[in-house]
Design goal:
- Homodimer.
- InterPro entries: Aminoacid_DH-like_N_sf (IPR046346), NAD(P)-bd_dom_sf (IPR036291), THF_DH/CycHdrlase (IPR000672), THF_DH/CycHdrlase_cat_dom (IPR020630), THF_DH/CycHdrlase_CS (IPR020867), THF_DH/CycHdrlase_NAD-bd_dom (IPR020631).
- Pathway: One-carbon metabolism; tetrahydrofolate interconversion.
- Keywords: Hydrolase, Multifunctional enzyme, NADP, One-carbon metabolism, Oxidoreductase.
- The protein has 13 helices and twelve strands.
- The protein is an alpha/beta fold.
- The protein has two domains: 134 residues, Rossmann fold; 139 residues, Rossmann fold, CATH 3.40.50.
- A hairpin with a 2-residue loop joins strand 1 and strand 2.
- Helix 8 packs across helix 12.
- The longest helix has 24 residues.
- It starts with 5 loop residues before the first helix and ends with a helix.
């Protein structure tokens, strides 16, 4: 995923690029928009996330006052990984703070795949649960795709269901949910008054979790989008053309100050530990962009930590609220609920008539599942 030797090879290809140390960079940088969410040219992700949580809490209170019900989020965790346990505690605490009901299933790492699937199916059928999240990674003996695919698309608040990603990729259509971290990146840009329409955006990284969805979200907002990855040639010169940079390669301090066009906005998704003997932990966290260098050139930049990180849970809460509103207001019913013959399914009621799933779509879905199963079998034989 991370670009290979990009810094050295690209620097040689573009000797005329400005260096971050030059005193001209700050003077030529475009001033950051006036916003309460920025300190100079540094974006305060904590402040933006706090505002979204405040808005979410207010809407949850409105739902409770009107229907005497609140949205519910179920988190499934398998195993005893300390980092996963920490993330789950943070999510449950965040739910409590905004008034969202929290449901959970803590399974041992010896749990079978069928046991995990049974828990997911139970939450699919639970009318008080409006969002389901399975904490990754799962133990190696469990097929993550099978478990994630079992989550009802109407409760896929993580936004990774193929139907949600497919609608995100299509012009004129919107997903029920989009992945939380990329949506958080868009919220940071928009709430800080950074224009996207008509701008040139470069996404460094093409992961299914951040890079690809971020590129799709930027495209929906009418940016001209380029994706850089490990096979990209002369990445530095490509990044230098960007008005907006989404750094999501998972490589510490990959994007240097000399890569950045003065005034560009940098949203740094990376969280990488680097050795630091001055810290009690022995390390510190840095992003995929070299903050000190890029800050001197950029018009806006997110720090690490305190930038994109707080946004992920804030958007998860927002997605859960939106799902809860659909169910509680009666726009949507649980897909597991019994239906009369000929009655449209839960998802169909949210889609335009021309997009309802017909017999050919069902056949294609069955073929896709069969093909995936065959691929796993063949892959297992080859190994």
């Amino acid at each position: 995923m991370a670009p290979e030797n990009s810094t050295a090879s690209s620097a040689a290809a573009a000797p005329a690029a400005p260096t971050p140390a030059t005193s001209l960079a700050p003077a030529t940088a475009t001033p950051a928009p006036a916003t309460p969410f920025m300190n100079g040219n540094v974006i305060d992700g904590k402040a933006v996330a706090a505002k979204i949580r405040e808005e979410t809490a207010a809407k949850v209170a409105e739902l409770k006052a009107k229907y005497n019900r609140v949205p519910g989020l179920a988190v499934v965790i398998v195993g005893q990984r300390k980092d996963s346990q920490t993330y789950v505690r943070m999510k449950r605490k965040a739910c409590e703070e905004v008034g969202i009901a929290s449901f959970g299933a803590d399974l041992p790492d010896t749990a079978t795949q069928e046991e995990v699937l049974s828990v997911v199916r139970g939450f699919n059928a639970n009318p008080d649960v409006h969002g389901i999240l399975v904490q990754l990674p799962l133990p190696k003996h469990i097929d993550e795709q099978a478990v994630l695919g079992a989550i009802s698309v109407e409760k896929d608040v993580d936004g990774f269901h193929p139907l949600n990603i497919g609608r995100l990729a299509m012009k004129g259509r919107e997903p029920l949910f989009a992945p939380c971290t990329p949506v958080g990146c868009m919220e940071l840009l928009e709430r800080c008054g950074i224009p996207i329409k008509g701008k040139r955006a470069v996404v460094v990284g093409r992961s299914n979790i951040v890079g690809m969805p971020a590129a799709l979200l930027l495209n929906k907002r009418d940016a001209t989008v380029t994706i850089c990855h490990s096979a990209t040639k002369d990445m530095e010169s490509i990044v230098r053309q960007a008005d907006i940079i989404i750094a999501a390669a998972g490589q510490a301090q990959l994007v240097r100050g000399s890569w950045v066009k003065p005034g560009a906005a940098i949203i740094d998704v990376g969280t990488n530990p680097v050795d630091d003997k001055t810290k009690s932990s022995g390390y510190r966290l840095v992003g995929d962009a070299h903050f000190e260098e890029c800050k001197e050139v950029a018009g806006a930049i997110t720090p690490v930590p305190g930038g994109v990180g707080p946004m992920t849970i804030a958007i998860l809460l927002k997605n859960t609220l939106e799902s809860g509103e659909r169910f509680i207001s009666g726009k949507l019913q649980s897909s597991a609920a019994p239906s009369k013959r000929g009655q449209k399914g839960a998802l169909a009621r949210l889609l335009p008539e021309k997009e309802h799933l017909g017999p050919l779509s069902a056949l294609a879905a069955v073929s896709l599942v069969a093909g995936a199963a065959l691929q796993r079998i063949v892959g297992g034989v080859r190994q």
